Amino acid sequence: MSGPPPRTEDLLIVGAGGFARETAQAVRDAAASAAASGRAPRWRLLGHLDDDPGLHGREVDGVPVLGGGHLVHELPAARVVVCVGSPRDYAVRARLVRRLGLPGSRYATVVHPTAVVSGSSLLGAGSVLLAHCVLTAAVRLGSHVAVMPHVVLTHDDRVGDFATLASGVRLGGGVRLGRGAYVGAGALVREGTSVGAWSLTGMGSTVLADVPPGEVWAGSPARRLRAAGGPALDELRADGEETAGRWPDTRMGSTVA
Q1: pLDDT in tens, 75-106
Q2: Which end of the chain is more exposed for a tag (fewer CB within 10 A), N or C?
Q3: Which residues are catalytic?
Q4: pTM of whole model > 0.85?
Q5: Would you give the DSSP letter of residue 28?
Q6: How far apart are CA 123 and CA 103, in angstroms?
Q7: CA-to-CA dists, residue 235 to 39, 49, 98, 162, 197, angstroms
């Protein structure tokens, strides 16, 4: 027997840029879907938090920007999701989570109502799954992972904490995506391949061989272009994974409603 439905909880989105706005829309779409089915919404969106003082007191797509990130500590009953990052600095989400210093129990997991998540897959706290993404069978998603629209993760994929999968990414079965890795829009990753921690794979790439940690690869087939940017390498050094062949399964979050 299934338990009682989860209660509606307050939610704060840290960030007010593109990814944060998409997440806010996913929350609203999920609330509309729940209402159409006669259910209470999972999340009550309080607003965005952003450290840009020029945004404070304004609305972004109709959602208020309440103030800076420090407000997560002044609203302790609210759950939180951190929605920042870009190819220019894809390590910023990890830095911000570290700065906030919240326990894992404070973090929400947001899933768009059109996403398909199999019962055998697990999602980590703080992760976001946007519209029409698919997790087929026994996928393990770490904490604070960003999964953009139309991403497909197939059987037995393992995705480390703070990874980003841009729109249209396809991972074959048994892929290992390391902590903090960024996979660009439309990239294809061959089954059984490893993409190293804090690496960046360019948009439209076809990854047929293992990508080492802390490198930028692009092309079809993908080849090494250069070392990753300084912020990503700083995270890699902090993780002690400069020569990493290890995959942080022990850091994977447990399932979150």
Answers
A1: 999 999 999 999 999 999 999 999 999 999 99
A2: N
A3: 155
A4: yes
A5: H
A6: 17
A7: 41, 24, 11, 11, 9
